[in-house]
Every structure is written in C-alpha cells, then in structure tokens.
Amino acid sequence: MNSDRIMELAVNEARKTMNENVGGPFGAAIVKDGEVVCVTSNTVLGGHDATAHAEVNAIRKTGEILGTHDLSGCILYATGYPCPMCLSAIIWANIKEVYYGTDLSDAEKIGFRDDFIYDFIKNNNQGEVLEIKHIAKDKCLELFKEYEEKEKEIY
Asked: How would you classify the pairing of strands 97-102 and 74-80?
C-alpha cells in the first residue's frame, strides 16, 4: 500500500470521528513491514481525555496489537504535524519515521494552539503557562533507587 493510500485511511478515520463529535480533524496510521497495523483518530472529546490524540491512540493500539512498547521499525502517518506530546510519545516508542499532512500553521489557522506549548518548552516561560515546582527529591530518589536495585527493564 502506498503512502497516499495510507494517509487516506487516516483522513477517513479522522473525518468519521470528527463528524461524530468524538475528536478533531486528526487521524493516524502505523505501518510495519509494509502492512498497516492500525488506523486511529483523535478521541479527545468523546473520551474526555486530553491525551487521546490520534498519534497517541495509534501508539497505544499498535503496542497492544504487537504486544510491545518498542515500535522500532514502525512508520507513523498523521494528518497533522504532531504536537509536542505526540512527538514525545513517538520518540519514546522508538518510531523513527513520520509522515504528516498539515503543518502547525494550518492547525493554528483553525484554532489549535500547539504554539504556546512549543514556546513554553523553548523559553521555559514558567508562570505564564504552567508552574513546575521541585519538591520531595529525597523520597522520590528512594523510589528510583528501589527500581534500580530490582534491575527492571529500562524503556
């Protein structure tokens, strides 16, 4: 299946759930070894979940289908350029290749506001967007030490 057809699957899924008022105009598909593993869309509104972006949903579903959190070798297709949360999820999942349809300025034109998160990350403008406070480091380090001593898998 070619890239245009895969993106069309993502667009169609986004259109479906968008028209059902489940989410915005965002769809995603993940492919591995030339086969479509899953096609998802944004379900933020339907699930009352701010993290239910199409890309995150696709990563979650693919992980379930493949039985792994490591999606090395997978390719993600998204109808929009991934937001900072989705970019982080993509990187954590070890996906190394992403194709997208619309860019940040296209999303901004219809009211989406990814730019303020990028600005926060770039400028660390605490207080304007978010307060982040460092507390209880010793107690939290104890937890980290316990994990390290158990020699658990690092992901």
From this structure: parallel
In the residue annotation, 55 being an active-site residue is answered as yes
Could you list the pLDDT tens digit for every one of the 155 residues in the chain?
Answer: 899 999 999 999 999 999 999 999 999 999 999 999 999 999 999 999 999 999 999 999 999 999 999 999 999 999 999 999 999 999 999 999 999 999 999 999 999 988 888 888 888 766 667 788 899 999 999 999 999 999 888 87
In the sheet that holds 74-80, the strands lie side by side as 35-41, 27-32, 74-80, 97-102
Compute φ and ψ for 92, nearest 5 degrees: -60, -35
pTM of the model: 0.90
DSSP characters for 69-130?
S--TTEEEEEEEPPPHHHHHHHHHTT--EEEEEE-HHHHHHTT--HHHHHHHHHH--TTTS-
Report whether 62 contacts 38 (CB < 8 A): yes
Angle at 93 between CA 29 and CA 79, to 5 degrees: 30
Catalytic residue among 20, 55, 97, 153: 55
